[in-house]
Each structure stands twice: as structure tokens, then as C-alpha cells.
Amino acid sequence: MTGFVKPDRIARCGWPIGMPVVQLVDGKAGFRNLEHCCSPWACSICSTIIRAHRAGELRQVVTAWTEQGHGLAFLTVTRPHTISEPLEVGLDRVQSGWRELGASQKWRTLKQVYGIRHWVRSTEITWNLSHGWHAHIHALLFLEDPDADVNGLGREIRELWSGLLSRDGGRPISRRHGVTCLPVATTPEQVASYLSKSSDGISAELMRMDAKRGRKASLSPFQLLDQETIDQLGPGTARRLWLEYVAATHGRRSVTWSRKLRGELMPTRERTDQEIIEATIGGQDVIDMPAAQYRELRQAPNLLAHVLGLVETGEIPLALDLLNTVHDE
Predict the structure, then answer these.
(1) Residues 129, 112: contact at Cβ < 8 Å?
(2) For 22, phi and psi rounded to 5 degrees?
(3) Residue 29 in 3-state DSSP?
(4) pLDDT tens-digit profile of 83-129?
(5) Dihedral class, residue 239 (left if φ above 0, else alpha if ψ from -120 to 50, else beta)
(6) Among residues 164, 162, 121, which one has the least CA distance to residue 141?
């Protein structure tokens, strides 16, 4: 990681503000009095918290929907791109294309014909040495009929999506790429089993970009920070790509819900990213530590995780012994 220069707010995430305190929130140990950037895109700390929270909400609404006897479809839309295309351009075009799709008369017709009641959308980004940045959208469609013709819906969306891209001066999608629409298990038992998978469940696939690895030759953004990737691409290239990613995603929403979905299946107000982070603060204080000691502990992630684990299991004296060792050094 030598030589990386991260944007100020993200770089400061996790820095102590006053005296750091180990606390317990719902049985989970963490720190308060730390700075948080609240980025769902570019911070390994905050994105994990934010996306895990939103994945949990999605599990709730999916379970409620399927228990009512309805169906689901998993949709992916993307667009042709070139290796030289800046990420910001690709993101703008794919996200504006989604907005145009939702505003079209054809989409309103498809909603009626196929019984599309709601949707949840997330944007995913990868980078490939041969093809450059690849921004694409995943969406979970909430269907009235569990036996809806998802293949037919996919063909209709492909025609609509390709037309929107061509109208805006872009290249039409190929027959193999551009739109994928697949049915999702619709009985409560099947959905519960599907969602419980840590790596490929619906909620993980849609929400947890922070936990993904790129497929085949593609890299997820966080892999640009891996030493293996830095060695492969060179520090200059990896740094340039990372900073381009941070700049292009700044201020964008990572996940959006259709307007009436929450009101029907989860009657609680959607929390902002900032509110999700703040909700993890304010538990039971367990251990106070000097800021210098905390900074040293951050340099040993395995030790830090071990200390938090001991706090969670109630072994506070052992945690203090470990912290005193760090302090003595």
C-alpha cells in the first residue's frame, strides 16, 4: 500500500476523535469516538456496515413478499463500453439509462402485463485489463405472479434497453450480453435457503459489492488495493484507477428502492448512510484506551480483531492484558 494517497475524508475514516472506547452494541464489539466517512462505495469500514444493513432490509422485504405468494426476478442490465471510456461516463450512461427505462411508456406497459409491483436496484462496478471499467445494474423485480413468464419479460426488457441505448447514440447490445433476467425461487423455504448463502444469495448479490471479488479477469474496486493487484498493475496504475473510482462514485446512491416498496413491505423510513453508521454507535462502554494505543492496535488487524472478540465473549481481563502489551511496546 506504500505510496497510495486516498481522498481526505476516506483516509481519515477510523481515526480517533478524543479517546477511543471499545463498546458493545447488541452483543457486537466496536469502537466509538472515531471519525467515519460514511462512504458506501470506497471505504472498507463504512461500506461493510452500510451494505450489510441494506442487505438485511432486503431479506426482510423479500421474505414478506414471497410469504404472500408472489414471485421475484433478478435482472441485470449493462451496455457496451471501451477500454478508454472514463468510469464517470459509463456510470452516468448506465444510471441515466435505468431512469429512462423506468420513465418510458413501454416500461409502464410491461409492469401491467407482467405484474411488476416493485423493484430494488444497485449499481456494480468492475475493472478489466482488456475492457476497462464496467458499470452495470442489478435489480430485483417483485412480481405479483410467482409463475410469471420471466423469459418473456427478459426479451421485452432487452428490446427496450437496446432501443434506449441506440437512441442516445450508443451501440446496441449484443445477443449474448446486455440484459439477463432470471426467475428466483418463490416459496418461503426456497427463498430462506437461497438468502442464507453467504456469497451468492439475493441480498449479497444485489447489495454486497464490498464483499465481492471480480469474476474471471475482472477486478472489484477494493481489489485495486490488494498488494497482489498493485504488484501486477504497478503502483501508479493501481493508484490512478482507485482515485478515479472514488471520484466517479462520490455523491451517488449505491442502492435505490421503488417508491412504494418500503411503505408496503417495510413501513419504516429509509435511513441515510450517515444514520446507518450512527446507529452502530452508542452501546455499552467497556474499555477506554489512549488514542496512541488505538493507533498502534490498528497496525495489527489480527490483534485488534482478537481484542474485540474477547470483549464479545466477556473475557475483558484477557482483552486488557493484550492491550497492555500493545501499550508497553
Answers:
(1) no
(2) -80, 130
(3) strand
(4) 999 999 999 999 999 999 999 999 999 999 999 999 999 899 999 99
(5) alpha
(6) 121
Q: Which residues pair with 141 in a beta bridge?
A: 73, 119
Other CB atoms within 10 A of residue 169 CB: 7
| Angle of helix 291-298 versus helix 316-328 axis, rounded to 10 | 90
* 201 touches 195 (CB < 8 A): yes
Residue 166 pLDDT level (bands cut at 50, 70, 90)? confident
CA dihedral 315→317→322→328, nearest 10 degrees, is 170
Q: In Å, how far are 81, 103, 247 from 173, measured between CA atoms? A: 10, 20, 27
Supply the DSSP symbol for 221: G
* Cell, residue 235: 503502483
Please tell me what DSSP assigns to residue 172: P
> Could you give the C-alpha distances from 204 to 120, 124, 149, 194, 315, in angstroms and in order?
13, 12, 25, 10, 32
CA dist list (Å): 269 to 53, 57, 88: 14, 11, 30
Q: What is the pLDDT of residues 47-81, one digit of tens each?
A: 878 888 888 888 888 889 988 999 999 999 998 88
Is residue 311 within 8 Å of residue 297, measured between CB atoms?
no
Q: Please answer whether residues 65 and 191 qualify as being in contact, where contact means their C-beta atoms are separated by less than 8 angstroms.
A: no
Dist. CA 255–CA 80, nearest whole Å = 22
Exposed, middle or buried, 38 (CB in 10 Å: 0-12/13-18/19+)? buried
Strand 116-128 to 16-25 pairing = unpaired
Residue type, 99: R
Hey, what amino acid is at 219? L
Residue 46 in grid coordinates: 463504512
Choice between 169 and 254, residue whose per-residue pLDDT is larger: 254
What's the DSSP call for residue 104? S
Q: Which residue is listed with cell 472515531?
A: 34
Question: CB of 323 within 8 A of CB of 303?
Answer: no
